[in-house]
Amino acid sequence: MAASLPSLGNCKNLLSLSLAQNKLSGSIPPLVIGLSSLSDLYFSKNYLTGSLPLEVGLLKNLGYLNVSENKLSSEIPGTLGSCVRLETPRVEGNLFHGTIPTSLSSLSGLQILDLSRNSFSGRIPEFLEGFNFLQILNMSNNDFEGAVPTEGVFANASAVSVMGNSKLCGGVPELQLSLCKSKGSRNRRLSVTSKLVISLCGGFLGLSFLLCFLFICWYRKTENDHSSVSPTKSLFKVSYQTLLHATGEFSSENLIGVGGLGSVYKGIIQHDGTIVAIKVVNLQQCGASKSFIAECEAFRNIKHKNFVKVITACSTVNYQGNDFKALVYDFMVNGSLEGWLHLDEREDEVH
């Protein structure tokens, strides 16, 4: 018989349908494969194309399914797992591909399973080991990979055929497959790789810490050197406004001395009431700015009980926008050196 399959959707009580060894072509009509009354279905050795319809899952009473030696393609539908009474599914000699659906794990009553001469791939499902009634398993000439199980039907090499799957390994010795690469060897390689990565990371972190330490040392040395060159930068702790208020706007009443490079005022720092002597540098005088820097440097490096302590310094601009520099000393109530040296002369002038 050479034709396409007719629709048999009205044959509600059909139990067995055999159309094997004909020249039927085209796809399998869903209405044919969806007759829930069917227990045996033979479509082998025809020219059927397309996929196995999803409606195959409606065949709740199906025990024998043979669609071998056709040109069926696509993947095995997962709905086939609903045919829980299925004992013999034969799909060999087609163009099926993809992995074996995990839903077939419900077909625990399988006795014969022939998947040979297709293009199935992936690992052999381990659930097949638990099929206690499985007597013949043919998975030859596909593209399966990985380790072949060794329990259940796989323990009997005469009941299992896996030849023509170049990526398979392991199994019982009678199958004569190559040994699988052991997990221990992979773990050892992984361990060596991990150690190498950890060593490299540890070395990198150690080098990073060393570089950070050297940078900190260099930075501190640079800061110290910079402070030696410009000592005033570490002394700028009071503002012009603070000194202005402390001296009553540099009033003559607070003036306690005048020198070649500036004037000295008595002042009271408002926030803590400290009495200080404030030397305001006369920047109009030639060399006054350099003298200010030199004095800062000298008092920074020299400590002696007979020298007046420099509390801080101020280098900024005043309210008129002019440069302003001043040194702030501890206030000494015993007068100045000049006053003590010329004390007799002043007394004579008074008399």
Automatic annotation (TrEMBL):
A GO-annotated cellular component: membrane
InterPro entries tied to this protein: Kinase-like_dom_sf, Leu-rich_rpt, LRR_dom_sf, Plant_receptor-like_S/T_kinase, Prot_kinase_dom
One Pfam family named in its UniProt record: Pkinase
UniProt keyword annotations, A-Z: Glycoprotein, Kinase, Leucine-rich repeat, Membrane, Receptor, Repeat, Signal, Transferase, Transmembrane, Transmembrane helix
Gene3D superfamilies: Phosphorylase Kinase, domain 1, Ribonuclease Inhibitor
Domain (Protein kinase) ranges: 250-351
UniProt KW Glycoprotein keyword: yes
PANTHER family: OS02G0215500 PROTEIN, OS04G0122200 PROTEIN
Protein name per Swiss-Prot or TrEMBL: Receptor-like protein kinase
Organism per entry: Actinidia chinensis var. chinensis
